[in-house]
Design goal:
Order of helices and strands: EEEHEHHHHEHEHEEH
Distance between the termini: 32 Å
Subcellular location: Cell inner membrane
Keywords: ATP-binding, Cell membrane, Membrane, Nucleotide-binding, Translocase, Transport
CATH topology: Rossmann fold
Number of strands: 8
Structural class: alpha/beta
CATH class: Alpha Beta
Protein name: ATP-binding cassette domain-containing protein
CATH superfamily: P-loop containing nucleotide triphosphate hydrolases
Bound molecules: adenosine-5'-triphosphate
Number of helices: 8
CATH architecture: 3-Layer(aba) Sandwich
Strand content: 15-25%
Largest sheet: 6 strands, mixed
Membrane topology: Peripheral membrane protein
Number of domains: 1
Strand order of the largest sheet: 4-5-6-3-7-8
Organism: Pseudomaricurvus hydrocarbonicus
Helix content: 25-40%
Radius of gyration: 19 Å
Length: about 240
């Protein structure tokens, strides 16, 4: 089978805030079509890494930042519409604020229905629950209609059943995805590849089928990698690193 083209690539990349090193010597290649889960303890550098990757393909990507990045005083409809702003002229977008465009309206209504938000379409998002707000942010990413999805804990505020369904839907709707999660089982069940960061370093980059929950749990506890016994190189060209 031919190897898919490289979509995103970092080579020995480091990032510091002042004298605080946040990412250290990261080399990472993501190919078209890959579904990559990004794991690691809080503060490990996942958001920083995701932003770095997103900056390589902003025009063809939808980014769902941590917290959603919604505009509180606008409605669910308007927030979802913002995902597609690039496709409309400024005048059309402004007009849409006053009177929703019929074409966008039918698309956004369909997205809201898929996300169980049809009853909230005209409500301002500051009156929604955390899980509902997160679904609006997913709707905005879906309306962006791009092949690549970056999600920073995109389903952390919804209940476990919804999290499974929404994650599966997001992965189905995007050709390539990089998603940070704290739920290790979701990562194992839904992704091809799992990348784990610890203290700004890559400590695991491995096909999901070669990992289990206990190994992933240990990344949150131990200094050394629990998969150090696994082969260093796989047929897919992924390298397992130990911290
Ligand atoms: N703008 C900033 N200025 C200074 N330090 C920052 C900034 N953004 C992040 N950091 C620091 O960089 C480190 C990595 O942060 P990052 O948000 O990338 O981690 P994370 O793995 O996504 O964490 P979490 O799982 O809690 O969201 C943290 O120590 C954080 O305090």
């Amino acid at each position: 089978m031919p190897t898919a083209p490289v979509l995103l690539q970092l080579t020995h990349q480091s990032i510091s805030y002042g004298d605080h090193r946040v990412l250290a010597d990261i080399s990472l290649t993501i190919r078209q079509g890959e579904k990559v889960a990004l794991l690691g303890p809080s503060g490990a550098g996942k958001t920083t890494l995701m932003n770095l990757l997103y900056q390589q393909q902003p025009e063809t990507s939808a980014l769902q930042p941590q917290g959603g990045g919604l505009v509180d005083l606008l409605s669910v409809y308007q927030n979802i519409f913002m995902g597609g702003l690039d496709r409309f002229s400024t005048l059309t977008a402004l007009w849409n604020l006053i009177r929703p465009l019929s074409s966008a309206r039918s698309d956004i209504t369909a997205i809201a229905q898929t996300l169980g938000l049809q009853d909230k379409l005209w409500q301002s998002v500051d009156r929604l629950s955390g899980g509902q707000r997160q679904r609006v942010a997913i709707g905005r990413a879906l309306f962006r209609r791009q092949p690549v999805f970056f999600g920073d804990e995109p389903v952390s505020s919804v209940d476990p059943l919804q999290a499974e369904m929404l994650l599966a839907y997001l992965l189905e709707q995007h050709e390539t995805a990089v998603i940070s999660l704290h739920n290790r089982q979701l990562a194992l069940d839904h992704f091809d590849r799992i990348v784990v960061l610890r203290e700004g370093r890559l400590c695991c980059d491995c096909p999901a089928r070669e990992l289990n929950g206990e190994q992933l749990d240990e990344f949150y506890q131990q200094v050394s990698s629990p998969v150090s016994g696994l082969p260093g190189n796989t047929d897919d060209g992924w390298v397992i690193r130990t911290s």
